[in-house]
Amino acid sequence: MSHTIKEKQSLLLRAKRIRGQVEALVRVLDEERDCSEVLQVMSAARGAMNSLMAELLEGHIRSHVLEGKHKPSSQQTVAAEEVIDMVKSYLK
Amino acid sequence: MSHTIKEKQSLLLRAKRIRGQVEALVRVLDEERDCSEVLQVMSAARGAMNSLMAELLEGHIRSHVLEGKHKPSSQQTVAAEEVIDMVKSYLK
Amino acid sequence: MSHTIKEKQSLLLRAKRIRGQVEALVRVLDEERDCSEVLQVMSAARGAMNSLMAELLEGHIRSHVLEGKHKPSSQQTVAAEEVIDMVKSYLK
Amino acid sequence: MSHTIKEKQSLLLRAKRIRGQVEALVRVLDEERDCSEVLQVMSAARGAMNSLMAELLEGHIRSHVLEGKHKPSSQQTVAAEEVIDMVKSYLK
User: Fold this and answer.
1) C-alpha atoms less than 13 angstroms from C-alpha of B9 in its C-beta half-sphere
2) D residues 26..55 contacting C (CB < 8 A)
3) What does the buried/exposed string (b/e) look like for C81-92 if buried means 16 or more CB atoms within 10 Å of the residue's CB?
């Protein structure tokens, strides 16, 4: 089963939270709020997006690259973890 | 006048487009669509967000750091352009 | 055979070019050259480093995550390509 | 006085440390060391480079965008700090 289905509830919750943050961004722009506030709302939404992106990529690597018809070797698993760690650190 | 007010219509349009992309993300997750599709929708939304973030930072530098009571010197203007170019290239 | 051995000559050449760029950075700082020049040299070195990092990660995914005792399925190969594309776009 | 001169010793030290890290990268590639080790050395060098880049950009904003013939207003200073914080968080 795909990670996006196995983790559906948690991913959906996070995507909805980002939607809320982007709605807040639309609102602060529309209400002509202080530019610093706009930047902060934008920055928070971007951070949440990056973090969800990292989560999706991690699941993609684990479920679709590593797992297949055959069980991955322990070397493959270790290499996958290294890639995941780096992807996460770039998307922080 | 703040750049977020001067450019209000264009910024608002872009923020609303991102809202649409995040709504699409919620939908593909909810409909349990293929993981590759989820990643693509997510990646497009993230790209649009980075690009709006770069735009907001550029405006912030121009309107609020560079411009003040006194006219900036041409050296200050050049230095600001260099910072803007780099910020843009990081957020591409 | 590991990708860092298979591609040794090309990777080594790129690493040496980055070494040259970092030596140039040390030099412009030491010679108290104009700050804009320092930033440009630094920025070029950073770009080259990101690009080599992306190359190394791509090889790691292909050689060590995807390839193992068993041949990867075409779904696994496609998923790996998707991850590689995204990693590359983040490190541009 | 430019920040790259005022902070010369500290910036130079950091640039030389990065040079050492890139020399280590050349060495591990040349000695055909384990790919995971290559990735770690590369990743550390890249992190140090990003952190020096953030430092240089911060100094550039403070010394060359903010400071000019006239003293910046407190609003300009606050806006500059906001830009610096964001640039730093992107280059972490």
Assistant:
1) 0
2) 26, 29-30, 32-35, 38-39, 42-43, 45-46, 49-50, 52-53
3) bbbbebbeebbe
Q: Measured between alpha carbons, how far is C52 from A57 in angstroms, rounded to an integer?
A: 21
CATH value of C3-90 in 3.40.50.300, 3.40.50.1970, 3.40.50.970, 1.20.58.1000: 1.20.58.1000
Supply A38's token pair. 């706009």
Which value, in Å, is the radius of gyration of the alpha carbons in chain D? 17
**Counting one residue from A and one from D, how many pairs have CB atoms under 8 Å apart?**
17
Nearest to D59 by CA among D77, D84, D86, D92: D84
ipTM: 0.89
Evaluated on CA atoms C39, C45, C46, C51, the torsion sign reads positive
Q: Is the pLDDT of residue B46 over 80?
A: yes
Distance from CA of A65 to the nearest CA of C (A): 5
pLDDT digit string, tens, across residues C16-72: 999 999 999 999 999 999 999 999 999 999 999 999 999 999 999 999 999 888 899
SS3 content of chain D, % helix, strand, coil (to 5): 85, 0, 15
